[in-house]
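Hey, quick one: can you model this chain's 3D structure?
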Amino acid sequence: MITELTRMWLTRSTKPFLFKNEYDQELPFSDCDGLGLYVHIPFCRSICSFCPYCKTLYTEEACSRYIDALIREIHLAGSQAPGKKTVTSLYFGGGTPSYLGEKRLCKILKVIEKRYQVARDAEITLEANPDSAGDWKALRALRRCGFNRISLGMQSACDEELRTIGRVHTMEQVRQAVEAARKAKIQNLSLDLIYGLPHQTQERWLENLAAAVALNPEHLSCYGLKVEEGTPLFAMKDTAGLPGDEEQADMYLQTVEFLKQYGYEQYEISNFAKPGRESRHNLKYWKLQEYAGFGPGAHSDFGGVRYAYEKDLDAYIAAAHGGQFRFSENTVIPPRDRDVEWVMLGARLISGLDPKDYEAQFRRRFDPIFLPFLQKCEAAGYAVSENGVWHLTPKGFLVSNQIIGGLLDAQAAEKQRRADAAARGDFRVNLD
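Sure thing. Here's the predicted structure for all 432 residues.
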């Protein structure tokens, strides 16, 4: 989940528009061999009160039109690449992809396999709602087709909490979905949970965590509730009984400690996994590796360009049928200008900020820029250095936006110093 600070920086425009117009038929390409693909399925049976993503209510007619457009887009994008790109992760997200059913999902996957070289060991994830994932034979068909990872939107173990946020499933359906996945021999299962729900107490949150751990998933994503403008929950946030910031902070620290006891290691702000079960696809986002998205609202970082499709479903379908792409935003980012993103995304990970990696990529010394600020963070218990690599502590993750802001301020000050020195003709300053 991208924070507001991260979103602000990632959508900035630093260079002129790469594409000739919003309907340009050409995409950027690269020689990357470990591409991640994201497929957006925008349909839901009901709209959750907190959801800010591109979604619409499911109808059979709209779904059929969309799948046809999506397949056209996959063919169009794939046909432009000089040779098949190797895909090492594939993620079907939404919305609720599982509502499409196994036949249509497998059809989309087979189209991708025609246009891309999907690695034999690729991680292929399907997001699913528990109410649409209880048929083990359908899940077996998906596994045989190539899907090997399921991410279930559990959100809570309490039916009352689920109803409050507009979820249509029950905890019993969560258990049934997990049982079905295991019967279908799916061996990589992730559960999504949300803390900070209306009227939620720390005790209730701990019960939710315990219920999730009892299902023995390989991976857990635990997100603090974000009340996004434009969502139904935003309109009633003052009367919804939302836990305060301090309560949410306590829930977060409780999460880290509790999951560690059961063998789930934190590897990112909101994500925990058993050894070797980290989400390979999501790590591509956080490690500045290349990925390409399909569908309205889908984002890509590919060929040196960060771009996104417009969220308008009808416009997307019309453009795809016209053999065109419809983009809403773009940013051309030269490799050496990715230092900002390197800081922002690396600070989200337990693997953290490696000075040697920074210096190799950006040809700038790490310590003079960041060390004074990081040492202050260390003294306050917000960051630690292990084997020369800096990462935030759970306490630091709670204030990660402020820490990232401080790191970016230090980086900006150094860039300004270098620019001022160059303007003076002071070449005693190393400008490489």
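One thing worth noting: The domain at 337-424 is CATH 1.10.10 (Arc Repressor Mutant, subunit A).
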